[in-house]
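Subject: sequence -> structure tokens, single chain

Hey, anyone have a minute? Need the predicted structure for the following. Not urgent.
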Amino acid sequence: MKKPNLYDKLTELSQLAFDSVEKFKQKRFLYSKLEPELKNKSIVILAGPRGVGKTILLKQLLKNVSGSFYLSVDQLPPDESLFQIAKELELKYKIKNLILDEVHYNHNYETDLKAIYDFLNLKVLVTSSIALKLEELSIDLSRRAHFYQLFPFSFREFLYFEKGIKILPLTLENLLKKNWQSEHLQHAYLFKDFITGRLYPFTLDEKSCDELFKNILEKVVRVDLPQIGKLTTIDILNVEKLLAFIGRSDSEGISVTSLSKNLAITKYKVEEYLKLLNKAYLIQVVYPRGTNVTKEPKILMALPYRLIYRDHIDAVGALREDFVVETLRASGLININYLKSTRGEKTPDFIIETLKGREIVIEVGGRGKGRSQFKGINIDEKYIFVDSIDWSEKQYPLFLLSMY
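Reply:
Had a minute. Here:
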């Protein structure tokens, strides 16, 4: 019997990926942007955390965009030439679109992708669960590539996947004017389920997801980060200690200095670890705004990883801040800072720049939050967002931030 060659095997695997997608009827909201991009752009780059649904999205594109070929790069030897594979698939198999999943498993993918662009007539979509190298690649490729990120569900997208409910998006501008509809408010009772873990596709049919998230975190730290950051065994242990310290602490006071002091790790190493963890979607880094303040960032966690280390009741305050930063960034707001006074007095939680260029200040908490928090803040627009289904006239429901 003739032994199948590499391309026969890859073709079989791509066909299996094509066939497997039939059971996934719902599509992530980002799909509607990626399908025309794959048809029109030379290189499309997609990053997002493990478990967020990138692979299913790619398989849906494989099925719906003709001439496409799917390849999971972790199934290849790490030194295999992606350029040679792409060349063979184009010349002999007549493919038009090459979809490369988890491309960071290949040692030479940056060089090969540039060669594919320069010498072949293929459109390429690549993904990774580590944003660091893909962001650098998108900058290097300049106008040739479009960079996207697939984030966990918004609350609106969660309702679509969980309940089949389609709700019109609510922009931040309309939210601040209280121009919401009754349909936006009807499902507030599900917000706790959402914020405590039901914001990934794989969690929808699970009663408890704690072990699943622990497994994802372990794989990111022990498999993904060493590939990208060239971490040693000592580094991996330090990263695990650092994550545990952040997860078990309140969000206030967690900084490079406090982590270095408490974990006996140099500031340089802490900054290196934080950069990697941020690009691996496990933590969130927020820089301060204020005069004459130290510029150390505030360290938050990505949802719902804090709950690996603390229960919901104990972690609820920090969890709300995790939610706000993740939600605002996923909705397109990148200018988010925390407020810090010169003497360290308590200030509202965040100052953000809206898409229309206005600065607003927001305080996040339970129903007891009041406007006394804004004393001494010289910015006109100040808002209180509360994690409660019972809010006052001067407050805003926290979950509505995630109806984008």
